[in-house]
Amino acid sequence: MKGRMINEGPPRTFVVVFDKGDEVIQGLLRFAEEHDLTASELTGLGAFSSCVLGYFDWERKDYNRIRIDEQVEVLAFIGNITTKDGKHKLHPHVVVGKSDGTAHGAHLLEAQVRPTLEVVINESPRHLERREDPETGLPLIAL
Predict the structure, then answer these.
(1) Average pLDDT of the segment spanning 37-62
(2) Helix, strand, or coil here: 94?
(3) Helices vs strands, H then E, count in the chain
(4) How far is the C-alpha of 143 from the C-alpha of 44, rounded, in Å?
(5) DSSP class of residue 108?
(6) What does the alpha-carbon distance between residue 133 and residue 139 come to, in Å, rounded to a whole number?
């Protein structure tokens, strides 16, 4: 994974390029920590060799894991980076396309890149903090 700032801002803008075999979630969290990103939006395109999507089950208050163990195109990758209790939080959603043209989308829990993933991150000049919602147990943005 390589990343660099392309606009000093505000807003600061970064491009992060993942290489074959890189893990997306941990890579983005590490990048957010290194650059102290506290209120950022992200978009991306590329491909995964495998991924795990998550669909939130309201009754269980947890994600149903949807494993996809094949090469997929990343058709849409959007999300944000905030903080909760001083730690960086990533909230990514993805739509991936299979070779037969079907698409699957949900929260992105895990992903291994192949051959690349290109992510643009735009940082807001204001900070956003998440707080745990007592009803769902999810860390939601507190305004």
Answers:
(1) 96
(2) strand
(3) 1, 9
(4) 26
(5) E
(6) 6
At residue 90 the predicted structure's pLDDT band, cuts being 50, 70 and 90, is very high
Sign of the C-alpha dihedral, residues 43, 46, 51, 57?
positive
- Residue ranges of alpha helices (H) inside 78-141 are none
Higher pLDDT, 57 or 11: 57
Burial (CB count <10 Å: 0-12, 13-18, 19+), residue 143: exposed
Quick one: pLDDT at residue 34? 96
How many CB atoms neighbour CB 8 within 10 A? 8
Question: For residue 126, what pLDDT is reported?
Answer: 72
Q: How far apart are the first and last CA of the chain?
A: 32
Joined together, the tokens standing for residue 8 give: 């000093």
Residue 113 has pLDDT above 90, yes or no: yes
pLDDT reported for residue 138: 87
Quote the radius of gyration of the chain (alpha carbons, Å).
15
- 52 is written with which tokens? 């795990």
Domains and CATH numbers, the chain: 2-142 (3.30.1330.80)
10 Å CB burial of residue 118 (0-12, 13-18, 19+) is middle
